[in-house]
Structure to design on (392 residues):
């Protein structure tokens, strides 16, 4: 089969999304109430503790594998867990239209889930490579054939590592706020000094939010300060933060730039807010990925947590991303009979404009459910020769 991807002449899309209401006060109100926020997850989620080579992993899952469709697997950032990181996004009404057709699996990093027991003194927290190597146990436990990963910050780094080590298990990645670079000794020393003068929640907040957000979006920041300090075990959190800060560079390079370059082989959507502390790292990551299967999304009027402050625009971008991989809304998010349906479904409030652009077709594993013939795909390529511009 053929997997169709859209690329501009420069080899990627840069999309700027502006939310009509960047952050509704009702979202702040929900976050301010700890019990309401943490209980807003649906009752049909099931919790599991899964044995892995590097210890137990807490996972919550909704649904069951549906044919050959991948599971949506998430991984949160430092200071958060799956609820604090993803509840707003996955509870967003339009996102429900997608997730009811896919099994959704949220992974909590070791010891970061609500109510987790504190690790004993001297516990060696798994390295970032080991955190990635724990995920095949999740895939095997639930019988997933492959996954579409959605990761934020440290979670994005873990999922990128997972895709590099186990490429056959990953069909696509949405990576928010990813920083592919390890800390240099100056950064490491600065982080150590900051840790001596700041509380742990303050250190985490400076990772999650830009300085501007810390000053101007006080309701959101204060609600997260409360959750980080009360919901996540502080000892366990410090171990996770230390391991993330000691990460090495992701071993990726754009194909053709160095001999035997490694990069992510699956479709990738990079996401960052235009007022996010991670912007520089995401731009750097984009420069190291294959431009023929990478989309770069900079979200206007958004900061360090676009999945919280801009869930509507992120949902629409995710719809496009799924369509680019061959999943069709009009087919109930199943794989369409041919590629004609890939970009045709309309998205509310999103405008498209045709430009002179290139379209690439990349082959994928023949066992995956791609039903287009070569002639059908070639014809469809002429119809999807465009990029997306958004004005709202």
């Amino acid at each position: 089969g053929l997997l169709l991807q859209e690329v501009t002449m420069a080899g990627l899309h840069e999309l700027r999304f502006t939310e009509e209401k960047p952050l509704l006060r009702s979202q702040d109100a929900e976050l301010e109430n700890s019990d309401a926020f943490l209980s807003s997850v649906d009752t049909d989620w099931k919790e599991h503790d899964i044995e892995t080579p590097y210890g137990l992993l807490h996972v919550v899952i909704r649904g069951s594998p549906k044919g050959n469709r991948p599971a949506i697997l998430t991984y949160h950032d430092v200071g958060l867990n799956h609820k604090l990181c993803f509840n707003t996004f996955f509870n967003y009404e339009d996102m429900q239209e997608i997730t009811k057709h896919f099994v959704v699996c949220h992974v909590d990093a070791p010891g970061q889930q609500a109510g987790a027991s504190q690790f004993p003194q001297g516990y060696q927290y798994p390295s970032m490579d080991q955190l990635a190597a724990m995920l095949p146990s999740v895939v095997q436990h639930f019988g997933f054939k492959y996954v579409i990963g959605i990761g934020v910050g440290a979670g994005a780094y873990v999922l990128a590592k997972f895709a590099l080590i186990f490429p056959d298990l990953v069909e696509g990645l949405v990576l928010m706020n990813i920083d592919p670079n390890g800390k240099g000794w100056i950064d490491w020393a600065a982080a150590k000094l900051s840790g001596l003068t700041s509380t742990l929640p303050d250190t985490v907040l400076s990772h999650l939010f830009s300085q501007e957000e810390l000053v101007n979006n006080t309701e959101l920041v204060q609600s997260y300060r409360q959750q980080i300090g009360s919901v996540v075990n502080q000892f366990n959190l410090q171990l996770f933060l230390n391991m993330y800060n000691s990460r090495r560079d992701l071993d990726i390079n754009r194909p053709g730039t160095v001999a035997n370059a490694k990069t992510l082989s699956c479709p990738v959507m990079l996401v960052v807010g235009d007022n996010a502390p991670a912007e520089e790292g995401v731009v750097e990551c984009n420069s190291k990925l294959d431009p023929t299967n990478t989309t770069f999304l900079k979200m206007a009027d958004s900061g360090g947590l676009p999945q919280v402050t801009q869930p509507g625009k992120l949902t629409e971008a995710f719809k496009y991303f799924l369509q680019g991989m061959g999943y069709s809304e009009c087919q109930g998010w199943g794989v369409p009979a041919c590629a004609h349906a890939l970009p045709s479904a309309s998205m509310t409030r999103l405008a498209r404009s045709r430009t002179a652009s290139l379209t690439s077709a990349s082959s994928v594993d023949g066992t995956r459910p791609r039903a287009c013939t070569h002639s059908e795909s070639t014809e469809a390529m002429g119809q999807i020769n465009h990029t997306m511009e958004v004005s709202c």
